[in-house]
UDP-N-acetylmuramoylalanine--D-glutamate ligase
Amino acid sequence: MEIYTNLIKRYSGKKVLVVGLGVQGGGLGVAKFFAELGAKVTVTDLRSEMELANSIKRLKSYPIVFHLNKHLLQDFLEADIIFKGPSVPWNLPEIIEAEKQNIPIEMELAFFTKHCPAKIIGVTGTRGKSTTTNMIYLALQNAKINCFLAGSLPGISTISLLKSVTAEDWVVMEIPSWPLAAFHRHKISPHIAVFTNFYPDHLNFYKSMDDYLYDKKAIYMYQTPQDYLVAARQLQKIIGNDRPQSQVFYTDDSSFSEASISLPGKHNLENANISLKVLEIVGIDKQKAEKSIVGFKGLPYRQQIVRIKDKVIFINDSTSTTPVATIKAIDTFHDKPIILLLGGKSKNLPYGQLLEKLQGVEKIILLKGSFTDEIEPLLKKQYPDKVSLVFTDMDKAVQFAFQSAGNFENGAYILLSPAATSFAMFKNEFERGDCFNEIVKKI
């Protein structure tokens, strides 16, 4: 409580600007937290009141000022502190002007890390962040360790944990690349850094892979000799060139077999081995840690088995928003014919390997979006007998997939693994996943 009391003293009456409330409520927790501290909070977002209705409704009991559909430079220049949402660019003109006036620009996860008295396990990587974060968290809970789940996970307000977290606690925090940019600015890294893997992603946001990798590296670049880094063997050369100060451990596949864990796929074997090493560092008994990991059932939208009907297995892998992720899904479900729901909005990522991997897919059902526009001509040329028309309706796409599955006597997989973002048809990948699940349940 001492941390929270000090924050009240520091920010009560101060002008706090939250830039980017977000349709997923990304800035909601920050706005609420500072309003409760007694700060004068203003929220600014380029979206409309209608688009942000759900988030605004949850803040209606607080004296918060909303400036929507535009940014007002005055809001930025009059603020005592500015909190930037993950999707808000650092080169936003109003942010640049505020920095010229030495107004501090913060992001939620870095602010939390600076003030958090507990030991933090920070998890990043192109794939496997959420699974590894939750796998570690569950094992700590099972070991009766007082711990908190934090970071870029749906429905979690990380900053609000500053009300209750203590030096005796552990925090397991998922940290994507965008929030890590602020870790560079403050030269901070978590006590235990976890780096699951690195593949092309977010090139619709970053200028290059090097820029994307640089943000990721903040997870370990500011660690001390008292800290730890656990990473996949794939990253040894990248990390080794940086000569981190922390104690570094690279994992391999020796601790588990694919048959021994509940989650399918070699990538989940990698997640399990990384999690086990982290738990060993924390001091959890190895047998107890292994039992927790083996029993972990996975998360929604990540190769989730939704239903089995008439030998047809429906798989929801909506969070696969990159070609690499979809390749891994195809590799995982290889014992039956695959009917793949593919497509959405492009991230400007290379997809040559995915096109090659689609040789092993029986049917490709396309969902509309700019990525689909890019690959459709290539698919029609390379796989003319496999490719459907482009669907603008998920219901019709799933129904068509189920009809197609009837051609396979021994059953098939209907795999939603789009290799692209959801924004052409949905607010986010979770809404896309929920829509798929609801349709499947009604078949």
Observations:
- Residues 118 and 167 are 4 Å apart (CA to CA).
